[in-house]
Each structure stands twice: as C-alpha cells, then as structure tokens.
Design brief:
By secondary structure, this protein is α/β, with parallel strands linked by helices. 44% of the residues lie in helices and 15% in strands. The strands form two sheets. Strands 3-2-1-4-5-6-7 form a seven-stranded parallel β-sheet, with helices on both faces. The chain has a six-stranded parallel β-sheet with strand order 10-9-8-11-12-13, sandwiched between helices. It binds uridine-diphosphate-N-acetylglucosamine and uridine-5'-diphosphate. Uridine-5'-diphosphate binds next to α1, α11 and α12.
C-alpha cells in the first residue's frame, strides 16, 4: 500500500495544543506517512507544548523574533515552507485555525498545488477586523483548503453560507481530545504558588489576555478593571494571571498589576498546568479562543474580554458570557459572579458543545476516506 504523506504545519501555542494529538494519531496509523513542520512563530510557548506531548518536528523554521509584525511572520513562513514543501512533496498539508502560520501554510501549499486540510474550520465573527487578523486568516484559508474539519455543525453552516460545500466534516474540536490527557485530580503544580492557593475558601480567578485587537485602550481598561476587582474583594479574591510573553502584554500587565498582593502574575504555564489550574479555579476571565472551549468542558464559567466571539455555542449553553472590553462592564459583570450568586450557579455547569474527545480519530478517518483508503466517511460529532 502506498502511504499517504500528510504534513502537519503549526507555529503557535494554541495550534500546537490542538494539532499535537492529531499529529500523534496520524503517526500511529499505518496508512499515513506523518510528518510535522513547525514554523516556531512562537518559541518557548511552542516548545513547552512539544515537550508535554513528546512530539519531535521533522522541520523547524525558527522564525520568531521579538515584537514581530504580521508581515514578517507571514513572509518568513511563506518562504520557509516553500522550501520544505518542494523537498517533501506531501499529499496533504494540514493547518490549524487562524494564525499567520496557518494562512502562510495554506498559501504556500496552494502555490505548490498541494491539497490543504483546514483543522478548526468555519468559525466566523463576520467582522473582518475582529479578531484581527484571525477572522480574515480563517476566511482566506477556507478558500484555499480542500478539506474542512469543522468542530461544530454551526461552523459547517458558516462555510456553506460562503458557498463552500465540498469536503466538509463535523469532527468536534481536537482541544477536547487534548484535555482528556492532561487533567488529573491529584495534580501537583511546579509553580508552588498554585499549590498554596486555597481553592475552597477563595474565589480563584484565572485570567489570560493577549489579543492584538485589545492592544491599547482595551487592554488598559481590562488591566485597570482587574486591579479594581482585586482591591475591592481583597478578602476572598485571588487572581492568577499567566502573562503571555508578548512584550506589549508584559508591559501593560506589569504596569497595572505589579505589587497587588492578591494578583499573581506568573510566566505562561505549560498546558498540563493550565488545564489543571482551570479545573480547580472559580471563574475564567479571558480573551483567548482556546480557554473559551476548554472551560465549559470543565464546568467553569467564563467572562470573555472581547466584544464578540466566533465560539457562540457555549454562550448559547449559558456558561460563557461576553463581558466586552470596557472598564465598567467588566467590573459589573465580574462583581455579579464573585463570592457565589444565583447568576454564578446558573453558569457553573459542564457542557461539551465543542467535542467529545474523538475529533482526531474522525479527522484521520476523513483523510483516509478522501484518499480512498476507507469505504465510509466518519460519523459526525453531535450527529
Ligand atoms: C499569535 C496569533 C494569535 C494567537 C496567539 C496565541 C497571529 C497573527 N496571532 O498571537 O491568533 O491567539 O498567537 O498565543 O498569528 N513571544 C515570545 N515567546 C513565545 C511567543 C511569543 O517571546 O514563545 C513574543 C515575541 O516577542 C513575539 C510576540 O510575543 O514577537 C508576539 O507573538 P505573535 O505570534 O506575533 O503574536 P501573538 O499575540 O502571540
Ligand atoms: N495556555 C497554556 N498556558 C498559558 C495560557 C494558555 O497552556 O499560560 C493554553 C490554553 O489552555 C489553551 C491555549 O493555550 O489550550 C490557548 O492559547 P492562547 O490563549 O495563547 O491562544 P488562542 O486560543 O486565543 O488563539
């Protein structure tokens, strides 16, 4: 049997968390010759994920530079991937989501007339500038790809509304597959502050914030609101904030929050630590996409620090709310949830709109079916 040569391409932390389980699933299957290329759009934050999943990339473009711009990332990835694709000639290139690596990966493959499979396809806000540049990246990859692995049925409908009707599969999100391997009841954290927090008696709020469209006034307001909440509820609130390594974010977070005793600014957590902290915390406040998917599966309410979301499923299920990026709205919404309330209880339940832990198996089956190695397509998540 001729093996199908499938190359996964990714570069940032969230892509790695969501692609590593798939890369490993492909490498376990005899019908595939599974290869992996990282752009290293992120460096430390990517390597930490590769270590946890024990994934060794076949190619590493090492493109990251401090304060990189969208153009430099895209140009470096495009040129680097052209060389790799010419050398390897994969039958299929898999990209994930909406980053600059994702867009450059799909475009570089298209230029070599190599088929593209898009993992986490079909999420839309319909606002071209938010999330920026991710909404546009994701839409453009939708045009370039031949196979579209949609986490949910709503994501599939978004693509159909754009006239993309072939090669669609509803698979669930691979992040839920990842979550099943990382969360453990007896987990001990490597950062001791996380072992010392009293998760029973205190409201431990997990915060992350990094989006480009929040740079400037929105991020200033988010950080001021966190400082106000920490001061107002200092008797029973602990804020844990693993700060993204972006210098823009580091500067803003430390300027507003340094020296507040119940705010813990810590380095980015590795993915096991993050998932286990999320499993123990009281509330999540975040502008991250991935956290919006993970927290509902762990029964944790989320306030989204954005004006919109391309992940409306958990909002509909009542466990995620849009808090916006204004100081007053963030303070009001968080205050309403702190220290137990009917509102909190309504939000704190486990829902799984994003997956059932079998997304990687479905994607691998769909690829095998596409290349004629299986008689039937995979079952649909939620079907
Ligand atoms: C990128 C993605 C965003 C995703 C986010 C996940 C794009 C356009 N944006 O944004 O969709 O939500 O990753 O975190 O692709 N840095 C380090 N070490 C690291 C990682 C980053 O020092 O391991 C610093 C560097 O100075 C780098 C900066 O962070 O220049 C920003 O990284 P970049 O990938 O450009 O943007 P993110 O905000 O991380
Ligand atoms: N994450 C992590 N350590 C951190 C912050 C986030 O492992 O300190 C994980 C998180 O659990 C999720 C993913 O990184 O799986 C989300 O990445 P990020 O928020 O950087 O990007 P986004 O999802 O917004 O694109």
């Amino acid at each position: 049997m001729n093996k199908i040569k499938v190359m996964t391409v990714f570069g940032t932390r969230p892509e790695a968390i969501k692609m590593a389980p798939l890369a490993l699933e492909l490498s376990r299957r005899p019908e595939f010759d599974a290869l992996c290329c990282v752009t290293a759009q992120h460096r430390e934050m990517l390597d930490s994920v590769l270590d946890i999943f024990q994934l060794r990339p076949d190619f590493d473009l090492d493109v990251m530079e401090p304060r990189q711009t969208l153009s430099t990332i895209t140009a470096k990835c495009l040129l680097g991937l052209e060389k790799v694709f010419k050398q390897v000639r994969p039958d299929l290139v898999l990209v994930h989501g909406d980053t600059s690596t994702t867009f450059a990966g799909a475009l570089a493959a298209f230029y070599q007339q190599i088929a593209v499979g898009h993992v986490e396809a079909g999420l839309r806000t319909w606002d071209r500038y938010s999330p920026f540049p991710e909404e546009m990246n994701r839409s453009m990859v939708g045009r370039l790809a031949e196979l579209h692995f949609c986490p949910t049925a709503a994501n599939r409908r978004n693509l159909e509304a754009e006239g993309i009707t072939k090669g669609l599969f509803v698979t669930g999100n691979t992040v839920i597959d990842a979550l099943r391997t990382t969360v453990r009841k007896d987990y001990t954290f490597s950062q001791d502050i996380l072992n010392r927090l009293d998760y029973e008696k205190k409201d431990v709020i997990l915060v992350t914030c990094h989006r480009r469209e929040n740079y400037g006034q929105p991020m200033e307001d988010i950080m001021s609101a966190l400082a106000f909440l920490a001061g107002t509820y200092d008797k029973f609130l602990e804020i844990v904030y693993p700060v993204h390594l972006s210098p823009v974010v580091q500067e803003c977070a430390h300027r507003h929050l340094d020296g507040i005793p119940n705010v813990h600014l810590i380095p980015p957590l590795d993915v096991e630590e993050m998932h286990n902290l999320m499993a123990r915390c009281y509330l999540v406040m975040t502008d991250s996409g991935g956290l919006q998917e993970e927290a509902p599966a762990l029964g944790k309410p989320v306030l989204v620090l954005r004006r919109e979301t391309e992940r409306p499923e958990a909002v509909a299920a009542g466990t995620v709310k849009l808090a916006g990026v204004g100081y007053d709205e963030i303070v009001d919404m968080a205050s309403g949830l702190i220290s137990g309330s009917g509102e909190y209880d309504k939000m704190a339940h486990t829902v799984n709109p994003y997956g059932d832990g079998r997304a990687c198996a479905r994607i691998a089956d769909a690829i095998a079916w596409h290349f004629g190695l299986r008689d039937t397509p995979p079952d649909e998540f939620g079907g």
